[in-house]
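Before relying on records like the one below, remember that each one covers exactly one chain. Contacts with other chains, cofactors or solvent are not represented anywhere in the record.
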Amino acid sequence: MLSKFIKVALISVLVFTFSTVYTVGADASTKVMWGKTELKLGQVGKITVLSKSSLFKLESDGTLTTVRTLKKGEEFRVYSYKSNQGGLYGVGGGSFIQKNSNIKYETPSKSKLALLKNQGTTLSISEETFNMSVSQVEKSESAKLLNKIVEGNITELTYETNKFGYEVHLKYIFLFGQLITIEYDFLPEEESYYTWNEMIGIHDNLHKKAVSELGKDYLIYTDDGESIFTVWKREPYTMIVSVVNQDTYTSATLVYNKEHYLDSIW
């Protein structure tokens, strides 16, 4: 049932042999501002620096390494909280701010959350999205939930929504509770083969629409008659539009892969 995930992982290994990174376009939806920062789905709170403080990296042995000194008035989105070291607020990118009297922590109001919820039917995809837990995605994603599968250490949430003019299945795939793959399946009900010319036509249509959202692509690869895909790279994830002949049918997907985890399981 999770075979597509494994196939995408194998394709991703090929992609990781390239190193150029392109920056893609930002989400065009209306921003919900909270002070100086934009409120985002998956955000649990905000920190305002009241006086001189520090931004830290949490090392594997539990110690803290200073990244830089924070200035009064700076604001940070908070996505998680750890109780060690007297309390650490996760502010994204593996960075933390220590709980103390030099900072002010707040949670978003119900009215702000309502505005954010009404922005669209699906989460905007960013680095912070990949820091979300299963429960955070379940609470934040407003598309219709079709299925939840738990197989060993893998959890898969499947929603029904729209993308690029298609009615699609949107999947969030977690490994050990960490979000590693987001997939839009453009042919969720199809179980038949397309000809190679038809596959090219589907890919070209998806590619054109993806460029308007993701910006200039990084790599186009084709295995004549079997698969064609386009790659966009944006640390820490890679985006792939692919049209592939499976065992019994043709699939068409847009996949966001978190590179670190797919690389590690390979």
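The chain has five helices and 18 strands.
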